[in-house]
Amino acid sequence: MNSMLRSARTLATTASRSSVLRRGYSSESVPDRKVAILGAAGGIGQPLSLLMKLNPLVSNLALYDIANTPGVAADVSHINTRSEVTGYFGDDQLGKALEGADVVIIPAGVPRKPGMTRDDLFNINAGIVKGLCLAIAKYCPHALVNMISNPVNSTVPIAAEVFKKAGTYDEKRLFGVTTLDVVRAKTFYAGKAKVPVAGVNVPVVGGHAGVTILPLFSQATPNANVSEEEIVALTKRTQDGGTEVVEAKAGKGSATLSMAYAGALFADACLKGLNGVPDVVECTFVQSNVTDLPFFASKVRLGKNGVDEVLGLGPLSDFEKEGLEKLKPELLSSIEKGVNFANK
């Protein structure tokens, strides 16, 4: 077993170094980048901290939570990769965690518990996000903000309103992380199409909850002979992916590991964009005029200032056009709920 672990670690390190070199850097000339994770001691935050520690583009990793972060930081800091790790906890250390951050990832919040309504969950997490965004506006107003805290359809508008009031809002620097929807769509499509998942791409647009998630399987590559009935089933499974995990865990957890992986993927894309890597395109929930909604998950080209370009939807199938119209009222309601919360 130890030899297997050593082999895997060697392969991962070699892959990381070679990927850095392919990006046009030498191993000594990778730009210094600070990443702060707010909620680093939680179910998503801990594996996300591990994955960001493995990223060779990160030189400084700041881990923050209300408690227990020093232990997480000490644990992660023993991993022999480039970044220096510091743990912060409590309100008085939040500013230090954020100062100088290039990317801030926010998985903070509470999972839904038995007896808790969706409104209960919203009010708790929305309040947490609002407070963290006030600190971001003060200590690192130019950072790229990656919002994971649910409900993303509402927490991103909350963040936007907080930043507007603080005079620091930049629509190019605020992202809702919807990458898990893309990861699921790729995985499910590859399984149905019987093609290697590594070569699969499926854009996912709309929002980040239930019916607002719209995978565009008509644009999937490689193109495979998947029936209309199978597309409907794949769409439903992608939309219900979170519920699938909650049920499989028998109420003892949610999609923490896959969400951490997706969050790390998107943060890596942001770092590549900041470092000038060309043609970095990811789907993410951003301020957009692609539809008549103020925010919409879209294909986005990332660059040195965050969003370089929000790309259009492209050609949609009739099924996808119908799904687009169905999602709009619910997504608009969630956006307005976030705006109203931030302004009350």
TrEMBL record:
It is an enzyme of class 1 (oxidoreductase). It is found in: Mitochondrion matrix. Substrate binds at R112, R118, N150, R184. GO terms for molecular function: L-malate dehydrogenase (NAD+) activity. One of its GO terms (cellular component) is mitochondrial matrix. Homodimer. This is Malate dehydrogenase. It comes from Linum tenue. The lineage of its organism: Eukaryota, Viridiplantae, Streptophyta, Embryophyta, Tracheophyta.
